[in-house]
Amino acid sequence: MITLISIVLILGLIIVLFVNLSPQFGGNPSKEDMQQYQQLSYFSQGKFHNLMPTNMDMDFTEAIKMLPEFFKNDPTRRPDFELPVVKRDSLELTEQVHETRLVWFGHSSFLLQLEGKNILIDPMFSEVPAPNPILGKKRYSKELPIAVEKLPHIDMIIMSHDHYDHLDYESIQKLKSKTKAFYMPLGMGAHFEEWGVETSKIHELGWWDEIQANGVFLALTPARHFSGRGLNNRFSTLWGSWVIKGKSKSIYFSGDSGYGPHFKEIGEKYGPFDFAMMECGQYNERWTDIHMIPEETAQAAQDIQAQKFMPIHWAAFTLAMHSWTDPVTRVIQKAEEIKQDIVVPEIGDFIILDENLATKTQWWKRSN
Q1: What is the pLDDT of residues 282-292, one digit of tens each?
Q2: What pLDDT, on the 0 to 100 scale, is given for residue 11?
Q3: Domain span at residue 140?
Q4: What is the CATH number of the domain that holds 176?
């Protein structure tokens, strides 16, 4: 018994030291910031809240039952072939670009070139979406379209929330010296300050806040999700989606979100959108309130009045129990059913909004 207690205490000490000494966990909003948040309708008792009732509960018994299923060695949860990745080089990304275009890095990470600006969205470029590589599974593709170090100077980085598959410590360390400004939901600035980003570069927004950022219109809009990087800071920072508008193009980025009426509200206020990146992956019947199933993704794209949308939050990591192609198969079927235009570009391919966007190949299917 003494030996068992000693092992438990040692493990507990290791966990506490890991959480408190590892920079990946970031920081927490100050007491002064928390006091200011009190005036917001979606903040109370020290936490941010969703606009509608959202079930986040999973009792201990259910969680234990889920573990074998989660860690099951299911070959359908990862590609059994090397995913095609279109390689980009520094020169083509630094040349003068007149059209609006994007490069997808898989999952929810993008480089957006708009109005002559280089904008990174949720730049997660590491191999594993976890505070330590041993705590997660590796990215599907061995390489990114371009190495982080070879990216051009970045005018702004836009963040949706602070989960590890969206906010990556190592990526920010590599990007902070070559980035002019960072835009994020309330409270997230504490992470960036902890990681050495100059305070003058950090800009926090609440839901429905708007800002002109170096000639680009930005609005942080609601999402139905949650936040937190540590053991006891869930809901301590805000989460959200983004409206991004240039002179001629309007773009929507959903971040992570369960389905809800906020999509129609966003569409009515800011739509229609030329292009939308909509969450579609890492879902499960146990957490449908915070991650849409594919059929809801297609409907949400229609709700926000997207002329064309692409499914994101898939094709990079396994964070749920569905097969890795289930998201794209189901969302295409639903989009066709409701006559909502959809495009599924290859990782790294240029998504040029001035062109007639179309899915070139079903690259997620293995070619024999």
Answers
A1: 999 999 999 99
A2: 46
A3: 6-352
A4: 3.60.15.10
